[in-house]
Write a structure and sequence with these properties.
Strand order of the largest sheet: 3-2-1-4-5
Number of helices: 1
Number of strands: 5
Strand content: 35-45%
Order of helices and strands: EEEEEH
Structural class: alpha+beta
Helix content: 10-25%
Number of domains: 1
Radius of gyration: 14 Å
CATH topology: SH3 type barrels
C-alpha cells in the first residue's frame, strides 16, 4: 500500500541545486525534493510521497485531511514495541 501525505512547506531553496524544501508534518520536519513542481513557495501544501512533492494541495483540503489523520490516530490503540 502506498501512502501520500499533505505537508506544509516551511523553507525553500535547499540542497545543492535549490530543488529541495523543508516541510512540516505534525511537528516533524523533513527535507524533500520539489524538483517535480514549479515555483514552490513557503506556506504551500504539497502531497509528499517517498521524498518527493508530487502536487500542490488546496490549504483547506490539506487542513481537513490532516485533521482527519489526527482524529484517526487518536482512535487507534497503542501497540507495544516489539
Amino acid at each position: 500500500m502506498c501512502l501520500a501525505l499533505p505537508v506544509k512547506v516551511i523553507q525553500v531553496g535547499l540542497g545543492a541545486t535549490g530543488d529541495s524544501a523543508l516541510v512540516d508534518l505534525g511537528g516533524v520536519q523533513k527535507e524533500i525534493s520539489v524538483e517535480l513542481l514549479d515555483d514552490v513557495q513557503v506556506g504551500d501544501y504539497v502531497i509528499l510521497h517517498v521524498g518527493y512533492a508530487l502536487s500542490r494541495l488546496d490549504p483547506e483540503e490539506a487542513e481537513r485531511t490532516l485533521t482527519l489523520f489526527s482524529e484517526m490516530s487518536a482512535q487507534m490503540p497503542l501497540q507495544a514495541a516489539a
